[in-house]
């Protein structure tokens, strides 16, 4: 029987790997490394560095989601099918239907990552193991030396798309925003909101900015545009906190 290990590798610093992650990498008969185009070659390079002593590595081109599909969920579903087919074919070409296969997951497989959903579409279905890793939320809080939740208060993790479409979520004063293809915070009234933003967390090019959203928002937009132009890609996230008095006056 085949075993597929999804290994969380943190956010760019090889020092973030746990001992369990290192053991899982060393135990693998095959490591899958997705290629996401030349613009994101840094992500593949880090995986190659981590797997320097592993003999069997298989790289494959990651299918691209159809962003033009009007039905978002259908486009994601079709994309997952295509990725699963790429995984299955790559595995079959290299080790057949038996052995230990590993895939290195940026951050942690449990948080806004589709690897577990995709893994369950493989044919044949393998035994699935998960090795947890440091999330971008943990790395962001650490970079800013920030406690995520206020005393006894909840927080919400959401996406840029949902923040832009639905506005500030009800019932919370702290919001973590991930997978923001733009700068969804610009859709909010910045009065009374503080932002902690970070890009390339854990990597040598890490950038962090924090402050009142009204003041820091334009600076983040400009910094983000410049960084994306220089690197060809950007991976960022941010935390928004609203003062209780600002919540009282929100529409």
How would you describe this protein?
The protein is 35% helix and 24% strand. It has helices spanning 19-27, 41-50, 72-95, 115-119, 136-144, 160-166, 213-231, 244-248; strands at 2-8, 30-35, 57-61, 99-105, 127-131, 156-159, 174-178, 193-199, 207-212, 236-242. It has a five-stranded parallel sheet with strand order 3-2-4-1-5, with helices on both faces. A five-stranded mixed sheet has the order 6-7-10-8-9, with helices on both faces. The longest helix is centred in the N-terminal third of the chain and has 24 residues, at 72-95. The mean pLDDT is 89.
Key terms:
five-stranded mixed β-sheet; five-stranded parallel β-sheet; single chain; alpha/beta; 251 residues; 8 helices
